[in-house]
Amino acid sequence: TYAPKLILLDISDINCIQDVAKEILNCYGCVDILINNASMKVKGAVQSISLELDKKIMDANYFGPVTLTKAILPNMISRRTGQIVLINSIQGKIGIPFRAAYAASKHAAVGFFDCLRAEMEEFDISVSTLNPTFICSYHRQPAPGNWEASIWK
């Protein structure tokens, strides 16, 4: 058995993910199951959401899980075993009004992990995507003019 180790990671900070993955692999030697479960969302009309916020949502919901998976994947491939899970959203399959950036990031993630599933079959690595319906998330009420406060985490 291994003692638990707390490793902090901002999944939207793509630049630190590689270092965190190395730290995990150095500590434990391998990852048997990777569960990608972090997410950010924002509610608003397309014309009222800045491109900056669109990119932040895409970094957290698409590039974050993809970057972490790619950092852990070579170890799984070399051992020819492992499981990768993406906890996504039903909005990765359908879009609803006022959630364009969120839905787009979730659609992109579904596409990536569907392709990964097919590619990893030969290495006996299981890739699963779960798309639950709406869940209650932590939310902060935004202050006027503060878009970061309107993000659901």
From TrEMBL:
One of its GO terms (molecular function) is oxidoreductase activity, acting on the CH-OH group of donors, NAD or NADP as acceptor. GO terms for biological process: intracellular calcium ion homeostasis. Keywords: NAD, NADP, Oxidoreductase, Signal. InterPro entries: NAD(P)-bd_dom_sf (IPR036291), Sc_DH/Rdtase_CS (IPR020904), SDR_fam (IPR002347), SDR_family_member_7C (IPR052148). It comes from the Eukaryota. The keyword Oxidoreductase applies. Pfam families: adh_short. Belongs to the short-chain dehydrogenases/reductases (SDR) family. This is Dehydrogenase/reductase SDR family member 7C.
